[in-house]
Amino acid sequence: MTTVTSPLAGRAIALAAVPDPVFSGAMVGPGTAIDPVREPSEAVAPVDGVIVSLHPHAFVVVDEAGHGVLTHLGIDTVQLNGQGFELLVSKGDTVTRGQSVVRWNPADVEAAGKSPVCPVVALEATAEALSELREDGDVKSGDALFLWK
């Protein structure tokens, strides 16, 4: 059982409410999303594991059970070409839950015309594999978002 924690402070929202059909339709996997506080912050690793994919706007951490957790910082933020994002780790690095991965400012993303909402997705999972899914209420960085069996 893997506990996936919030990479950011903000408000939990259902994945279905994310303004992107790929995420809202759970095409990449089930999970939840965070509407982040609008201040400079650091997105942190939601699980202990290895960074297997790393972009300014998104990263994937795979835990020792082989579970890949995607954190996507905002919607359509790939179009910002990394502007406003600072990578704090490298692909292949081993990280611990709560370790800073990317520094960014959700307010800047919003000012650029993009949604700062951050999907946190269990890659290649089924909805049945997740439990205790958090889809509302305020969350702090490190609060539990869901359990992955």
TrEMBL record:
User: What region holds the PTS EIIA type-1 domain?
Assistant: 20-124
What compartments host this protein?
A: Cytoplasm
Q: Which Gene3D superfamilies match?
A: Glucose Permease (Domain IIA) (2.70.70.10)
Q: Which UniProt keywords apply?
A: Kinase, Phosphotransferase system, Sugar transport, Transferase, Transport
- Keyword Transmembrane helix in the entry? The reply is no
Q: Which residues form a coiled coil?
A: none
Does Transferase appear among the keywords? yes
* Biological process terms in GO annotation: phosphoenolpyruvate-dependent sugar phosphotransferase system
The molecular function terms in GO held by this entry are: kinase activity
Q: One GO CC annotation, please? A: cytoplasm
> What Pfam families does the record tag this protein with?
PTS_EIIA_1
- Please give the InterPro entries that the UniProt record associates with this protein: Dup_hybrid_motif (IPR011055), PTS_EIIA_1_perm (IPR001127), PTS_EIIA_component (IPR050890)
Q: What is this protein called?
A: PTS glucose transporter subunit IIA
The organism named in the record is: Streptomyces resistomycificus
